[in-house]
Amino acid sequence: MPRMPQPPGSGGGQGARVAASIKPGDAVGSVLGTERDLDAPVTAVLAVGGGFAFATGAGQVVLASVKLDDARIIEAHDGAILAAAIVDSACVLTGGDDGRVVMTTNGTAETLWTSPQRRWVDHVAAGHDGAIAWASGKTVFVRGGGAGAEIKDLELPGAAGGLAFAPKSKRLAASHYGGVTVWALDEDTTQVFDWKGSHLEVLWSPDERYLVTAMQEGAMHGWRTSDGSDFAMRGYPGKPRSMSFSRKGDWLATSGAFETVIWPFAGKGPMGQAPEQLARRTHMVTVVGYHPLNPYVATGYDDGVVLLARQEDRRELMVRRTGKAPVTGVAWAADGKRLAYGTEDGIAGIVDFSAVDKKR
Amino acid sequence: MTAPQSPSTPEPARQIPVTVLTGYLGAGKTTLLNRILSETHGKRYAVIVNEFGEIGIDNDLVVASDEEIYEMNNGCICCTVRGDLIRVLSGLLKRKGKFDGILVETTGLADPAPVAQTFFADDDVKAKTRLDAIVTVVDAKHLALRLEDSREAEEQIAFADVILLNKIDLVPKDELAKVEAMIRAINPYAKLHRTTRSEIGLAEVFDRNAFDIKRLETIEVDRGHDHGHGGHAHGDHGHEHSHEHGPGCGPDCGHDHHHDHHDHDHHSGHAPSRHEAAIRSISLSSLHPMEPEKLLKWLQDVTAGQGQNILRLKGIFDMKDDPERFVVQGVHMQIEADHQRAWAPGETRWSRLVFIGRHLDDAALEAGFRACVAD
């Protein structure tokens, strides 16, 4: 069972080389980015189309490409948006505490489903070929993706802690107290990967060899999907709620510690191996996001700081120097040239790195 | 592993107070809830209910949540929490605009401990909300019967910080005195209000700070000795640091006493008769100062060893050579202790400690307490 070794001293600190036009001490975000106060907590940040979508605690979906001043604000929910996902890289699927599932397409919000009892829609997920899923309490609903055009539902042993479509196959994973239920949508069969405790977010590795969950108990848990063998990834001082696989699935970056904890998933997987640690500060990492092409991790902290850490040489680039509230989401544009972030005190930000690249 | 202390702990003032409302079926909880939701009080309270019943589902301040008990760290009673509450509270905190308070209604059959422990066990919940008080509504007419047949009714009284002795119009005065005595035998320190139709000023229910050891002013141990009320109004209390002593059943809980067979034997199988397993309280007091190291060690040992049977404890101590009052409060194995404020001039310095629980060994607790008195 892997355990985290002792933290390695102070960690980073050396800033990465940036363009000559940026004065020493500048945070790149203040030079190359824009921010906007959305006046409600940002609850999710996603890349959509050529831009980004920010979901808020006031039920809005905010769409922006580079300049947040020009953002389009769509009133999608009557309450907080609790979960969001991108469908076919163009539409924003959201679930809210108004008990509705909403799809926002080209700036128009359409209600897809309403809870008869106004129960919260806590989780949403999107798969390939337009498949969508959402969870309200113990019930998971799915449409498309092998389940057909009608909405099908599945009752879990406990309330859903997270939802994730398999990247390739027609399967949906739903985590809950006691483990993860994998629903094979074509066959309409289920398989349970169990482990005692409360499982929150769930994620597939890009090759579907592994399923991992972030647990309430300050640990990660993983299963090899081929044989169900499992492993614990422990040692977090907080709850590791944000998880991100590197492009090839070799590494899994996680939040929940005072550094980004990165588990090796190449070859035989993380069993018996120690994680790498990156971007250590005196504040807790709240969100992580691997760059879509390179081994860089965008890292958000509970004090609102965002930085970019390069795995190979541990160099760090300050993206957002200060803040007042935790970072709640980060997202990369598909080409990796822009990064968006959102915070609990309602700040949305977009940073354009293409200018940095050109001047190097 | 030892975690570095996060420097970003929010100030207590920004934590949203959470009131837990318990009470056996038919005691008058729903009446109270409806009043809180319908009265004009200028406050914004979110209400978490178990199911939408007589409470309107159109009110977006009402959230239904199915009780889900999570056993953390392999299932000691002290590590059970309400998983659904963690989820719902986190969700409520995502909303734009803050609440003045959150009210959690529990089912009539609920054990209040997992609800209370949720506020110690989850970091996010702990950072943004605080358990303010457990309020229990009691049906004056049926209490005696309830205590005979229901373990939960008894626990709800044991955990309470505020008790609404409701439906007093249905009970003759002398009987009411008996009912109050029954409540006091279980819980000597809860603030008790006599009500009809759950009518009470909301200030008596909300923002009581009953779990804030800084606000622990009196514990009614023995009325004969209880003349230590001086300095009541003199607020605060220099110290900012709060220490959690003893085995906090957080994520790192490593107790190996969870499956104490001796304890389990007591609970297994048939329900024990009220006399054997009845919840009651033990009050201890001393006019001589206490030895701090001995006392803390003893409290840790007692809660670690008997935490399953100790439902609540509260204490105010006069420590040797210490100009400040030392205060302790706990739920099962979770205990918090801290300096509170300087003893006021002229205030009688004395120590008092109340345990509420089952199978409490009076003689052993008394002896343990006496052994902590400074020479």
Describe the structure.
The complex is a heterodimer of chains A (360) and B (375). With 360 residues, chain A is mostly beta strands. Helix content of chain A is 3%, strand content 49%. Chain A has helices at 28-32, 354-359; strands at residues 33-37, 42-48, 51-56, 60-64, 72-75, 81-87, 91-96, 100-105, 108-114, 123-126, 132-136, 139-143, 152-155, 162-165, 171-184, 189-204, 210-215, 219-224, 230-233, 243-245, 251-254, 260-264, 276-278, 285-290, 296-301, 306-310, 316-320, 327-332, 338-343, 347-352. Chain A has a 6-stranded antiparallel sheet with strand order 14-15-16-17-18-19, with no helix packed on it. The termini of chain A are far apart. Chain B has 375 residues and is of the alpha/beta class. Chain B has helices spanning 29-38, 83-92, 112-121, 123-128, 143-149, 151-159, 173-186, 261-267, 274-277, 292-306, 362-370, and strands at 16-23, 45-49, 62-64, 69-71, 80-82, 101-105, 129-139, 162-166, 191-194, 243-245, 280-286, 310-318, 324-331, 334-342, 351-357. In chain B, β4 and β5 (80-82) form a beta hairpin. Chain B starts with 15 loop residues before the first strand and ends in a 5-residue tail after the last helix. Residues 1-13 and 222-274 of chain B have low confidence and may be disordered. Classes of the chains: A mainly beta (360), B alpha/beta (375). Chains A and B meet through β16 of A and α2 of B.
How would you summarize what this structure contains?
The complex is a heterodimer of chains A (360) and B (375). Chain A is mainly β and 360 residues long.
Radius of gyration of chain B: 20 Å
Placed side by side, the strands forming the largest sheet of chain B appear as 3-2-6-1-7-8-9
Strand content of chain B: 15-25%
What integer value in Å does the Rg of chain A equal? 20 Å
Largest sheet of chain B: 7 strands, parallel
Determine the fraction of residues in helical runs of chain B and give it as a percent range: 25-40%
Oligomeric state of shown chains: heterodimer
Structural class of chain A: mainly beta
Q: Poorly predicted ranges of chain A (pLDDT <50, ≥5 residues)?
A: 1-20
Category from helices, strands and their pairing of chain B: alpha/beta
- Flag low-confidence runs of chain B: 1-13, 222-274
Distance between the termini of chain B: 39 Å
Question: Overall 3D geometry of chain B?
Answer: globular
Strands of chain A, count: 30
